[in-house]
Fold:
Amino acid sequence: MSSVKITNLSIAYGDVKILDNLSLDIESGEFFFLLGPSGCGKTTLLRAIAGLGQKPQKGTIHIGETDVTDLPAWRRTAPMVFQSYALWPHMTVLKNVTYGLVQNGMKEEKANSKAMDVLARVQMADFAKRRPNELSGGQQQRIALARALVLDPSLILLDEPLSNLDASLRIEMRYELKRIHEQLGLTMIYVTHDQEEAMSMSSRIALLNAGTVAQCGTPDDLYSRPDTLFAASFMGRINTMEGEITSSQNNLHIISTKVGTFKSTYPGNFDTGNAVILAFRPHDIVSAGSQNSFKAQVESEFFYGSHREYVIQSDGGTFKMTSSSIVNSTEFGIDESKLMVFHDELH
Amino acid sequence: MMNYIEIFKKPSFYIHALRWVLYISALLPGMSFYTRTAILGVFFAFGLAVDRNVFSIVRDTVLIFLSIFLLYPVVYILREGFMDEGRFTLDFIFAVFKNPITRNAIITSLSLATVTTVICFILTMPLAYFTVKADFRGKALLAGLLLVPLILPPFVGAIGARQLLARFGTVNLMLMNAGIISSPIDFLGQNKFWGVALLQALHLFPIMYLNIVSALANVDPNLEDAAANMGTPPLGIIRRILLPLTAPGIFAGAIIVFIWAFTDLGTPLVFEYREVVPLLIFDRISDMADNPEGFSLVVIVMLISITAYITSRGLLTKYNTAMLSKNRAKAREWKPSLLTANLIRAMFIFIIFISILPHIAVILTSFAGKWFMTVAPSTFTTAHYSTALTHDLTVPSITNSIIYASVATVIDLVLGVLLAWMVSRSKSSSAKYLDMLAMLPLALPGIVIAFGYLASFNGTFLDPRRDAMWILIIAYSVRRLPYILRSAYAGFSQVSDTLEEASHNVGVSPAKTLSKITIPLITANLVAGGILVFCFAMLEVSDSLILALKTSSFPITKAIYILSGRVDDGIAVACALGVWSMIFLTISLLLANSILGRKMGELFR
Structure:
């Protein structure tokens, strides 16, 4: 079991800062996600843990008790599942899996039997004699995972492992990965830009933005109690509206907006007169609600089977709302605890 | 960003500075070969002391090899051409232009190269156009056969051509028998210029062909469709779209042909066309110590070639960036009618036939028992073939050539793989400069390198006057390094970095990764590149003729040249030897072509 500790890590390519003084503590046994938009540095961070790519200019990386910052990639035990799978095309599936063992001195026979065990675990034992180019994307994905698992690691790194799979296979592989994590209890660090993937599988998520950690916490923390508008909008769809604090006491904020006065119990410190952005998720708008009610007209409706989506027009702007039942009211409301309030940094 | 003051505080900075001072001093003239090598040895040892990673060791090894065998001879030639008793002077260069003999030779050589290039262009343009745009049966085969002249040693062909064009040779006799002319045309006397130009063109046109094909294939067919869509007729599309877009690529190919023709030694030598620069240089070799004229001519040839080469590279780079477009469609082929297809095929076959005609003459000569005053030999024999394999001049030369070519190929494979690996995997700029240095032999004609070796290794154990074995091996490997480098580089760029990273990631060291993952993945490229290097080394002309000074170290080409000058059966035996090597080379090249496929063309750009 390995924990991973990143301290004040900075990595730059020339003048371009990729990671900027970033620190993270990943507990052993966690299914930890690095999430963020493209270019936020999540892959660079994962590769830095593996020892690949540009060396850090500053900071340290510990795997377990060991400071690995200056160790080359091949002296670390942090096997990775690459986004492109990176299976060696000139070797059979079995050779791909045993390669790491055999090259490090294990007898071929022993390595083979070990590899077959792991291949069975990922349900690929029948494919041992094939070449990678004879396999589908999902099968290659399993081999790449087997190649990492065969080393009996206490830590596995996954770089957008599902991004090259089609939608239904992707969902299926989520169950599979989660099952493997639970069975083996190892530390897994997983990079993705897909917030749904991160929320559904992770024990904790670090949301990265521009080379720093925007927020780190459980999926529920990030979804329901985001610290910033960036986190709120990255974790799911959101409506926004401008407002101004008229009073803020004992964590009850009164905000005046174009459609009336709103109340919120969202955590945060505000002073009277602060310009703020109110944010609320489409499914938190209810028709004819008792709290924070406002008037709006339904403009259009979209039917999705499990639910309906409405575009509603108010004096404060156009909002999206979702509902499981048909909406035909002109009165809407938002629960005080569901209304997020953020400082408006533009004002 | 690192503070610059910090850099000066590190001791490694001073060691590096000292290293480069040592390096530069090793290139300066005025010290013995052994001192120079020792200084570079110290340079290498200091490098090991400060930076012991694989990249730096590879970089220093390749740099030292290229410095001794490429840079230093060039520096030596420049010094002899521009320095007089320690002072810089242009007198030697001016002297070349003042002397009517050398001045005329330069003009003749430039005209010869121009004419050769123009003939190449006219021969190839339609062929290349149909190769890219038309879809007809047998195209792949005909396009492959079109490359055959490239591997036939041109000066062996020249021996055959001499037989064909002699006063009472095949061509004159056929023309006279047909009643077209009454007295023989003197092809080999007054009209040598055209004979040499034609022969060079027949040897070099495949290079032009490969370049034009690749330029045409790079044009996005959507651009032509867009023009057609706006009402441009087909010929208008060729003139307004295709030609302007491909002109830089075609010109770049033309420059390569120009350099080859300008510096070709073999063909004019066989035709005894003494009024060209390469032959003047060849003649100055014996008195190079007393006469600066040889050096000045070499300097001029070198400057012209390098300028031309850089122009060509510049054009290609500009052209390649301009052609870089995403989502471009594959070249579309048009299906000609049966008649048109036959006409196209006939055109290919005619040009292939013309281009191998000299070599057919070589084959005929090699079988000729008696061939005098008749269109074809009157009696045939295979005696010359057994003579060619038993003669006391040819047997050692065959052994020599095989040894030289094999060792040169091994050296190139090792250097080429290491360098290509470094260039493709490290982002450092030093790798790029080293790559440019290693590609320089493409711009340096064989006569320049050979002349430089002869002058700068005078008196060392590499002196060809003692034994040419090692200096020829080195000359072959330096000159052909670019080919291996290109094909290895192409291989490395196809092997994604991630495949190597994945190996490091499961705990395998970089050196082991190179041998277990990377090299196996680029084997095809290496084999093909190796075969090419081997072939070119086997039929190399200028270095072989200039550097092989003792009979015991003659390679095949020099043996053929010496034999062809002997009376009685010399020419026939020379031709038999030529045929042996042609058979050998054809097989090798077909092998390389089947391994390397379409990428073969990229090696000649």
